[in-house]
Write a structure and sequence with these properties.
This protein has eight helices and nine strands. The chain has helices spanning 12-16, 35-38, 41-46, 48-61, 69-77, 93-97, 154-162, 215-226; strands spanning 5-10, 82-87, 102-104, 107-114, 121-123, 140-144, 166-170, 191-195, 209-211. Helix 5 (69-77) runs parallel beside helix 8 (215-226). The N and C termini lie close together (6 Å).
Length: 227
Amino acid sequence: MKKQNIVVLSGAGMSAESGVMTFRGNGGLWHNHQIEEVATPEAWENNRALVLRFYNERRAQLFQVEPNAGHLALAALERHHRVRIITQNVDDLHERAGSTEVLHLHGKLREVRSERDENLILPWTGDLNEGDLAPDGAQLRPNIVWFGEAVPAMSNAIPIVEEADHLVIIGTSLQVYPAAGLSRFLIPGTHCTYIDPAPNRAGLDPSVQVIAKNAGEGVPEWITSLR
């Protein structure tokens, strides 16, 4: 088997199979909170306590879930190929499965940062409360890229995609930008696979291989096709 440079773009569907509650579902956000209430800079200014509680609940949930078969299969694939994962997810399930090259586009639940300095980042596993301060004296906030904020990691993600021999997109509706536009940076002719139980085929190039299954089934099936 020829060693390939494989790039993975994973979305919420990848983690949903492990039991991680997703942002979108049933017309609302988690616990019926709308995006504007808990995931924007304005929400942070208007109701800091609600935002902190929302992310504390999500962080606590990470202790109740485990990587699924899709996460584990991607980690095992590193024995044969270089596998770099660009994820929209803020959980750490890829890392816990054993993947070693993971770029989080939208931040990490187990990190917090100064609200004054976005580069002052600290690891965090428990609750975050009002009055918890960064070393610079500013209030700590979740290290999450909220709606309306820039996505700094895109500048790192683009060259990774440009170097791919094979791009595999897993568990995403391809509707959240700028992440959904990353496939535009593929070198023409690069093979692309899309794994999702309800794939969004709108505007999808006919050359894309579609596996209409969840990650736990679809990822091992795709890996078999590489051999």
